Amino acid sequence: MRGEVLTLSSNVNVTADTSELSRTPAYPDPYGCQILVSDFFEPSDFTYRAGSINFDNVAVYNCSQEKTEFAGIKFHNALTGVKKVTNSAISSGKGEGIIMLSSNKIELKNNVIHDHILFGIHGVGSNVLTIDNNVVNGVKPENIPDHPYMEWTEVNGGIDVSDCKDCSVTNNIVASTWHSGFRLPAHECDGKNPNYNNVAHSISGYGLIVTKSYSKKCSEFASFRGYKNRIATMQFGGGIGSDKQVTRDLVSIDSVTGLMALGATGGKVEVIDSYIYGDKDLLNKDCWNDINPNCG
User: Taking a C-beta distance cutoff of 8 angstroms, is the pair 232, 262 a contact?
Assistant: First the structure.
């Protein structure tokens, strides 16, 4: 299946103003809102305030601002408070969906992030993140209509927590993004796997880019699924700096390249318990052309 059925509405809504009051000659488009979660000190007496959020079943619409870090939901230096966003929808923004900057202990579960620019979920310098069972869809590199596929000028994608430590990214689906579906770090071979059961499909570039490793000796990425990705389902490059790279339990269907396993110079690559399927010259048994010439 290449489509995703998404629920974007809720009884509780946060919606940006799109009236003439939100437009200026310098910026003629409506200037979307953002929800900010941050720890700070009161300027009058330096009392410490912990930013907290506990969103459940909330729809956030038209929020995030173009060419800024003002995402629909932004965590910035949010270190101590409760930070949970669950069963919610963040959609139709001119910037990023959710960004986590220098923050810790954030839980994102069962959410839909749809129709944003640059990133759906983006972690920078943040740790102890739980990102589980979310759907990210329709994230473009720039705010231009009918953006051409296979074209981008900077890193962009669905879920990117590539520099995160102590993070868990599991059971998520990313579809219809440009540069990548996921950008995630590898884990140490035979160690705990924090990133598994994720699926990327209908990506203009790569379903998954493995960006770094915390092990010089041996790095592994396991349990990933991808299909209909224009460049590759998975790119695991030698630039991560490990002597040995292990890909385990990869399933790739009908992508141009299943696995780009590019080891370091003099290093070793292992691919274990993985399945890569193509469609070249395979008969579509559900719709045979020799029986029905109108079938594709």
Answer: no
